[in-house]
Write a structure and sequence with these properties.
Distance between the termini: 12 Å
Number of domains: 1
Largest sheet: 3 strands, parallel
Number of helices: 3
CATH superfamily: Response regulator
CATH class: Alpha Beta
Radius of gyration: 12 Å
CATH architecture: 3-Layer(aba) Sandwich
Structural class: alpha/beta
């Protein structure tokens, strides 16, 4: 499982997600986008690119842990 932030220093999480999902021969881990970037267009974009879940700030630790557990059990 990968946890990606939409806003990273040298590359954004959307680009990482796009490259990961484009590599159909490689492993396809569950991906959680966890970010402070909560604009309306970001969640649909992340899900369209192949994110399994998207959580924007403010979020609780409980919400993150529940989402991680759900994704790992799926």
């Amino acid at each position: 499982m990968l946890v990606l932030d939409a806003m990273m220093r040298h590359i954004n999480g959307f680009d990482v997600l796009k490259a990961l999902r484009a590599d159909v021969a490689g492993p396809q881990p569950k991906v959680l986008m966890l970010t402070a970037k909560g604009q309306e267009k970001d969640r649909p974009l992340a899900l369209a690119l192949g994110a399994d879940a998207y959580i924007a700030k403010p979020y609780s630790n409980k919400e993150v842990l529940e989402t991680v557990r759900r994704l790992l059990e799926a």
